[in-house]
Design goal:
Layout: E1 9-13, H1 18-29, E2 35-38, H2 51-56, E3 64-67, E4 70-73, H3 75-85, H4 96-112, H5 119-127, H6 133-155, H7 171-185, H8 194-204, H9 207-212
Parallel strand pairs: 1-2
Antiparallel strand pairs: 1-3, 3-4
Helix pairs in contact: 1-3, 1-7, 4-6, 4-7, 7-8
Length: 238
């Protein structure tokens, strides 16, 4: 079906958004060319609050994907759209039971862990609940430990392989890697999760995951050795 969809894909993204990170991984794994437009979530009160971007996504969240004039929001819906619209490099297997297991893990990460580190949630804890950074980190660490304990149990089962499910990356890996990145940002203890750490390390060695990494994005504020200064914003998968 990919040959019937010639129009460019435009991804509204923010370098450190784990939700946008998931979509970048999926696009790269499926080798789908795309363009990015950065929406800085902090600068000048947050570019997501501008009238221009609110016209794209009234929720003011990233990511948003524009394809053939249609806007798709929410990372799970975007990844599902990519899977259904582009046949190459499937991220879900043909077997319904396996597909549901992968979706269950991805959705658990998206719904039961990631929302607790959303910028709007953290700002509310700071400004409205008057919590300092130590308290916020402890609060977030609780939810990471709870969620990753379940993920570790699932990944310790017979369906896991080199990656979350089997020996090729799936949608579950697209969601797991950004969540580990978030946990590392908040200095969460990941020692109790050896299977998660092993799988994420393998994923990060793949070019598709590396190019999607926050520090490798054109709008990154990261100033380390992988700073993308001067890098073009067009990206291609593989």
């Amino acid at each position: 079906m990919a040959g019937e969809l010639p129009d460019d894909l435009l991804l509204y993204s923010y370098w450190r958004s784990s939700s946008a990170y998931r979509v970048r991984i999926a696009l790269n794994l499926k080798r789908i060319p795309f363009r990015q437009e950065a929406i800085h979530l902090v600068r000048e009160g947050g570019e997501q609050n501008s009238p221009g971007y609110r016209a794209v996504n009234p929720l003011g969240l990233v990511p948003a994907l524009v394809h053939q004039g249609r806007v798709i929001v929410q990372s799970m819906a975007i990844c599902e759209y990519l899977e259904e619209a582009f046949d190459a490099q499937p991220l879900l297997p043909a077997d319904p039971a396996s597909r549901s297991a992968i979706r269950s893990m991805a959705q658990s990460i998206a719904s039961e862990i990631q929302p607790f580190n959303n910028l709007s949630v953290l700002k509310y804890l700071e400004t409205e609940m008057h919590q300092d950074q130590v308290a916020i980190n402890k609060w977030y660490d609780h939810w990471v430990e709870r969620g990753f304990s379940a993920v570790e149990t699932w990944l310790s089962g017979p369906d896991s392989g080199l990656y979350c499910f089997g020996d090729t990356p799936t949608l579950a890996d697209c969601f797991l890697v950004p969540q580990v990145y978030n946990a590392e940002r908040f200095s969460c203890d990941l020692e109790p999760f050896p299977v998660i750490r092993r799988i994420v390390s393998r994923c990060r060695s793949m070019p598709a995951f590396d190019r999607a990494a926050p520090e490798n994005q054109p709008d990154s504020d990261h100033q380390g050795p992988h700073s993308p200064a001067g890098r073009a914003s067009n990206q291609k998968g593989a």
